[in-house]
Design brief:
The protein is an alpha+beta fold. The chain contains 17 helices and 38 strands. It folds into six domains: 100 residues, Rossmann fold (3-Layer(aba) Sandwich); 145 residues, ATP-grasp fold, B domain (D-amino Acid Aminotransferase, Chain A, domain 1, 2-Layer Sandwich), CATH 3.30.470; 69 residues, ATP-grasp fold, A domain (Dna Ligase, domain 1), CATH 3.30.1490; 116 residues, ATP-grasp fold, B domain (D-amino Acid Aminotransferase, Chain A, domain 1), CATH 3.30.470; 114 residues, Glycoprotein, Type 4 Pilin; 38 residues, OB fold (Dihydrolipoamide Acetyltransferase, E2P), CATH 2.40.50. Strands 14-13-10-11-12-15-22-20 form an eight-stranded antiparallel β-sheet, with helices on both faces. β7 and β8 form a beta hairpin. α7 packs across α8 and α12 runs antiparallel to α13. The longest helix has 22 residues. It is globular, with a radius of gyration of 27 Å. It comes from Toxostoma redivivum (California thrasher). GO terms for molecular function: ATP binding; metal ion binding; propionyl-CoA carboxylase activity. It is an enzyme of class 6 (ligase).
Length: 667
């Protein structure tokens, strides 16, 4: 059986040899879902774990899962999760034999680890030489060239200032990509199409790089227009053995950050897959790499591929590789760190089935495909009852999504014997995922995986802006889907009315003998108002919409966050997000939340006499579209500004965003 699909709770079930001794105690210098992921494998291997946390993460899931937990500082990552001195002290105090951490951090920590190695502490990951070489995009590109790996044309040195950036960009030829040398995760990256965008990109990229990585060095290279982003998972040991574990397709992105990943890719043929895998292994061997790592490539429409970067850590999207190969990458990393040789040969690595991963974020997808949202998860239920579903998360009901950390809620993974099956499972899982208290991107994820272009495999890193040139607007209902939604909303209204007449199974007013069986309603959806007639037939409702009758059946458990509704034989999973006494209700249907108002015919006729609340005039206000920190203000009171002029810069989740004036006026 698939190791990642063994139980309904998706516990890992790789075969562990109790005679193969590794470590007694391991410190995890990370947070969130990846820390929880490491702890799960450690528990299976009999390794005790130590978690570190900031003061705001004291009740985090990874803290509760670990055997020990130590606070290392306040909320900002630079003062807690990247607080080198505090972490080294925890290692000494807890006597941890090994440490696992996010290695995309500054080199001072690596030198500290080198010192700790002499005291018998092992780092779960590659050695410092490989991390420094591959963590520096300039050096890694030169090493890739020497290893005969295909590379993107560009400037191989450090860009000193904005003027030099413009000069280099002109020499390379627009468009160009400006990126942080020590970067990753889409931070410190900007595409520039002209001199002005190059100057602006240099400023923001250097600031983001300094904030995220403590290193503001930048490089510039040719921007490959309309590519695919495909990466190769590699695994190497300390004995000179290295494997490539097939590819992951990561082309669905926004702001250079991945949103949907899958394995394998629909685009690669066996020859291209082998060529990319062999070059990835050649690079790993060139830097004497020993652990799990990822070599990322850009692939053009002719299947020419170019080295992008190597990530010397366990990638967010690693579960899809685990699902199609059956390997537990965390276990393999721990074995390699202890000095064991790899247990597999290249010929042993399979592609069994298909896996898809959606990154579920606390983001508003209607704003630039996802601007961060903060808040408390007032209700949270993962779709683990759906077959072949795995959820890697580091939160639970009651958790806070704050401005200090990445807004990821979870990684939702589905597996199938083929791509169509995996995508169908993902559609079902997204419909059954309950998230309340923060905005989330479920609607965008669902629309992506059912879009004809995605289903056909016709994708690139420009997928989102090409498919949604005016921004994401949610699911566009067909006439049939609109009637199904109206019928569902009307049935819910009637079910609510019938429930309110009874208490503990008996009528609230025993002498009342009302046996009402039909209702005339008016449902407001979008710009339309629709007359709807509902009649009760046992546990079902017959609903007439647009002159057509629909049969709506459900258990009508109104206390459940999920409702399985069958409409003329078509099953839909819906969620009633909210409702109020004025008939207004929000229903999540086909992934998108729709606002409706359901009224009786009489109430609808009288509603025209109700005064409407005037919309707030925001034309003279600059309001941040996301929570964050003001890091720069470019104007002062009394200044005249023109439309499009920068007013301030907001940093949210380590990404810097320029806020501009919507019109000409005085501050």
């Amino acid at each position: 059986s698939r190791w990642c699909l063994i139980t309904s709770h998706k516990c890992y079930s790789s075969v562990y040899d109790p005679n193969e001794k590794t470590f007694e105690k391991l410190l995890i210098a990370n947070r969130g879902e990846i820390a929880c992921r490491v702890i799960k494998t450690c528990k299976k291997m009999g390794i005790k774990t130590v978690a570190i946390h900031s003061d705001v993460d004291a009740n985090a899931v990874h803290v509760k899962m670990a055997d020990e937990a130590v606070c290392v500082g306040p909320a900002p990552t630079s003062k807690s999760y990247l607080n080198m001195d505090a972490i080294m002290e925890v290692i000494r105090k807890t006597r941890a034999q090994a440490v696992s951490l996010n290695v995309s951090i500054c080199c001072s920590f690596l030198s500290s680890l080198s010192l700790q190695a002499s005291e018998g502490v092992t780092f779960i990951g590659p050695d410092t030489h490989a991390i420094q070489a591959m963590g520096d995009k300039i050096e890694s590109k030169l090493l890739a060239k020497n290893a005969k790996v295909n590379t993107i044309p560009g400037f191989d040195g450090v860009v000193k200032d904005a003027d030099e950036a413009v000069r280099i960009a002109r020499e390379i030829g627009y468009p160009v990509m400006i990126k942080a040398s020590a970067g990753g995760g889409g931070k410190g990256m900007r595409i520039a199409w002209d001199d002005e965008e190059t100057r602006e990109g240099f400023r923001f990229s250097s600031q983001e790089a300094a904030s995220s990585f403590g290193d503001d060095r930048l490089l510039i290279e040719k921007f490959i227009d309309n590519p695919r982003h495909i990466e190769i998972q590699v695994l190497a040991d300390k004995h000179g053995n290295a494997l490539w574990l097939n590819e992951r397709e990561c082309s669905i992105q926004r702001r250079n950050q991945k949103v949907v990943e899958e394995a394998p890719s629909t685009f690669l043929d066996p020859e291209t897959r082998r060529a990319m895998g062999e070059q990835a292994v050649a690079l790993a061997k060139a830097v004497k790499y020993s652990s799990a790592g990822t070599v990322e490539f850009l692939v053009d429409s002719s299947k020419n591929f170019y080295f992008l970067e190597m990530n010397t850590r366990l990638q967010v999207e690693h579960p899809v590789t685990e699902c199609i190969t059956g390997l537990d990458l965390v276990q393999e990393m721990i074995r390699v760190a202890k000095g064991y040789p790899l247990r597999h040969k290249q010929a042993d690595i399979p592609i069994n089935g298909w896996a898809v991963e959606c990154r579920v974020y606390a983001e508003d997808p209607y704003k630039s495909f996802g601007l961060p949202s903060i808040g408390k998860l007032s209700q949270y239920q993962e779709p683990l009852h759906v077959p072949n579903v795995r959820v890697d998360s580091g939160i639970q009901q009651g958790s806070d999504i704050s401005i200090y950390y990445d807004p990821m809620i979870s990684k939702l993974i589905t597996y199938g014997s083929n791509r169509a099956e995996a995508l169908k499972r993902m559609e079902e899982a997204l419909d059954n995922y309950v998230i309340r208290g923060v905005a989330h991107n479920i609607s965008l994820l669902r629309e992506v995986i059912i879009h004809p272009r995605f289903v056909q495999g016709d994708i690139s890193t420009k997928f989102l802006p090409e498919v949604y040139p005016d921004g994401f607007k949610g699911h566009k209902l067909t006439d049939l889907e609109r009637r199904q939604l109206l019928a569902t909303a009307a049935s819910l209204y009637v079910a609510e009315q019938l429930r309110s007449q009874r208490f503990l199974g008996t009528p609230r007013i025993p002498i009342a003998k009302s046996k009402r069986s039909s209702w005339e309603l008016s449902v407001h959806l979008g710009d339309g108002i629709y007359p709807v007639a509902v009649s009760k037939d046992g546990s079902s409702f017959s609903v007439e919409v647009d002159g057509m009758k629909l049969n709506v059946t459900s258990e009508w458990n109104l206390a459940s966050p999920l409702l399985s509704v069958t409409i003329d034989g078509t099953q839909r999973t819906v969620q009633r997000i909210s409702r109020n006494a004025s008939g207004e209700t929000s229903i999540q249907f086909l992934g998108t939340v729709y606002k409706l108002q359901v009224l009786t015919k009489v109430a609808a006729e009288l509603s025209k006499y109700m005064p409407e609340k005037a919309a707030e005039d925001t034309s003279s206000i600059l309001r941040s579209p996301m929570p964050g920190t003001v890091v720069a203000v470019s104007v002062k009171p009394g200044d005249m500004v023109s439309e499009g002029q920068e007013i301030c810069v907001i940093e949210a989740m380590k990404m810097q965003n320029s806020m501009i004036a919507a019109k000409t006026g005085k501050v």
